[in-house]
Amino acid sequence: MPITRPIKKSTEIGKRREIIQPARNPETSNGISYGKYNSTQEINFKGLNISVEKDEGVFHFRREIAGSIFTANVATTKDEYFLEPVEPMNIPAHVTDFLQIKFEEIVVEPETTTTIYLTMPLGIGIFLEAENGEMNLLDMAGFNNPKFALYGQPRRGVITRVHTSKVYTKPPATKNYKEAILHLDIDNRTDQWIKIGRIVMYMKGLELYYDSTVVASCAEMIVTSPDKAHINCLDVSLFDGLTKCSGVFKQGKISKFCSINDVVRDKMFTMDMGLK
Amino acid sequence: MEDDSVMEDVTDFFSKTFTGNEFFDTKLIGEITIGNVIAIAIIIIITIIVARQIGKIVQHKLMIKSEAKEAERFAKVIRFIIYIIGFLIICPQLHFDIAGMFVAGGAIAIVAGLAFQDALKNVFFGLFMIIEHPIKVGDVVIINGVEGYVEDISLLSTKIRQYDGLILRVTNTSVYSGNITNCVTNVARRFDYHVDVSYTEDAEKAIKIMKKTLANHPLVLTEPAPQIFVNVLGASGIDIEARIWAPSEFWWTARTELLWKVFSDLRDENIDIPFNQLTLWFGEEEAKKLQETIEAKKEKEEGNSGKSTP
Question: Which of A161, B82, B163, B173 is the most buried (most CB within 10 A)?
């Protein structure tokens, strides 16, 4: 019998982050440097080339990655742009607002909470900031080859950006230009052993935090029956000293990629078509 | 019957409340008293408030399900109905004979109904479409064989923008009573390809190449996974069928992009895709006769060309 305890946000993550230290990828010295750039600084990083030419108050912006070229003329008074990790959406187009991470099945004991770490894909956002502080997304690029999958059935389902991850018990080493760490608290509120092999998140709530070497996010999964769980993305920094990303999510109609009623409640997504 | 008694109760309430003393019974215009005027003013205010509030609630509830324009239109209809009810409550205060009005109104309604029956039918089907929602603005639909985007749904008709840019106006009666295929109700949609490879080729190798091509394309869904299999041993080659799912919104993009990629990748791997061909066999006797005829014709042609040479 499923136990129907009220859903509440986990408060454990704040305590844990003090003792957890991020794993540093040996490649991190070769990781991308997020932050502020000006028009004299060109970026050439593993096939991502960004250049800006200044022409009397108009900046000619050019980005190239894997044969895909984006150009824009920007009229701005500020001679700078920002590189930040962003949610893995809008590449190659706005196909969905949902992210599905598949992983090796884990079995969770009844009425317990466990924490795992997964990797998740990310995009690189190029932002402009106006004098009044208004940030604007100019362009997005990504090092991942995006793939999509249907969670559920064509008649009752959700189109998701899909990613496969290993299951880690501590924060894994990741490439900060390609993947982020996802801290996932699994709260099995049922009195049964539960098998879990995937999570689906609504990217509205996905908050990324970054520093020079790592990008991370937190979420919780509250399992209320063997086939049903609520996924909450949490606005919490996994490690001390991380900066919050600007984010690119814009609220729109989700009926184009979600044909199920009542599975999205603000930032929470309810997986009711299986957890494996 | 119950509605009638409610109406009567309401009209009685206003008639009795604002009468019975000298001030209320002072006549202003004809039989209309000060009490009547006060009652009319109160009824008008209440009607406006009720119409606005109910209209707002209806619009808000419908906007969750449908386009803002449709919801607004439906709310207008509801408001209009409430105003009519308000007017009917006011009538006794103006000393109009409602029964007589209903008789006259009934006769007018019958005449109007006969004259505008098609228009009224469309209006009702328009309302049904707003409530039932088989299609909405922006959907890709096939209605009675016409395919395109739903541009607008009004009370009388639905506009379909066909792929060539032409706008087709279909009456709501035809839409509602006809066959509607909504291509984007489901979030994922399938399309199929049939690729013939030559009998001299390894079909398994061709399938492997096709699988790789599909796996590299972002819009091909990994779940449900594409199915690729030998479908038929055809007249000209081995027919390989691919069943591919894509997000409904990007179905056309995926369908148009992929076929050439599949063909190019097969060609790059030297997989022969044959033209339609037919091998005719006449039997030995017939073949011999045919050979002789061809040779005789050839000799004759050579003889003719030799004569014409100077």
Answer: A161
Q: Using CA atoms, how far apart are residues A216 and A173, in angstroms rounded to an integer?
A: 11
For residues A21 and A17, give the distance between their C-alpha atoms in angstroms, rounded to a whole number: 8
- Model confidence at A30, pLDDT cuts 50, 70, 90, reads low
Evaluated on CA atoms A248, A253, A258, A264, the torsion sign reads: positive
Amino acid at A213: T
**pLDDT, tens digit, for every residue of B99-153?**
777 777 777 777 777 777 777 777 777 777 777 778 888 888 998 888 899 988 8
With a cut of 60, say whether residue A4 has pLDDT above it.
no
Among the partner-chain residues A92, A162, A258, the one whose CB lies closest to the CB of B187 is A258
Does A157 sit within 8 Å of B221, measured CB to CB?
Answer: no
**Residue A85, pLDDT above cutoff 80:** yes
Contact A145 B218 (CB under 8 A): yes
pLDDT number for residue A22: 58
Q: Are strands B32-33 and B140-143 parallel, antiparallel or unpaired?
A: unpaired
Q: What is the mean pLDDT of residues A149-165?
A: 93
CA–CA separation, B298 and B296 (whole Å): 5
Pick from B123, B145, B148: nearest CA to B135 = B148
Q: Which residues pair with A60 in a beta bridge?
A: A53, A73
Rounded to the nearest angstrom, the minimum Cα separation between A146 and chain B is 6
Instruction: Kindly determine whether residue B218 and residue A258, on different chains, have CB atoms separated by under 8 Å.
Output: no
pLDDT digits (tens, 9 = 90+) for A166-206: 999 999 999 999 999 999 999 999 999 999 999 999 998 89
Shortest Cα–Cα distance, B160 to chain A (Å): 19
pLDDT at A29: 52
Strands of the sheet containing B238-247, edge to edge, are B188-197, B238-247, B227-233
> Where does B148-228 have alpha helices with state H?
172-177, 203-216
Helix, strand, coil percentages in chain A from 3-state DSSP, rounded to 5: 5, 50, 45
* Distance between A49 CA and the closest CA of chain B, angstroms: 22
Q: Are B244 and B193 in contact (CB under 8 A)?
A: yes
CB contact under 8 A, A157 and B187: yes
Find the CB nearest B218 among A148, A256, A257. A148
B223 part of contact set with chain A, CB < 8 Å: yes
* Helices (H), ranges, chain A: 12-16
Q: Is B225 exposed, middle or buried (CB count within 10 Å of its CB: 0-12, 13-18, 19+)?
A: middle
Q: Give the CA count within 13 Å in the CB-facing half-sphere of B240.
A: 29
| A244 Cβ contact partners less than 8 Å away, ≥ 6 residues apart | A207, A208, A209, A237
Mutant choice from B223, B248, B252 vs A, greatest count of A C-beta within 10 A: B223
Distances (CA, A) of A204 to A87, A235, A258, B188: 9, 11, 14, 22
ipTM: 0.85
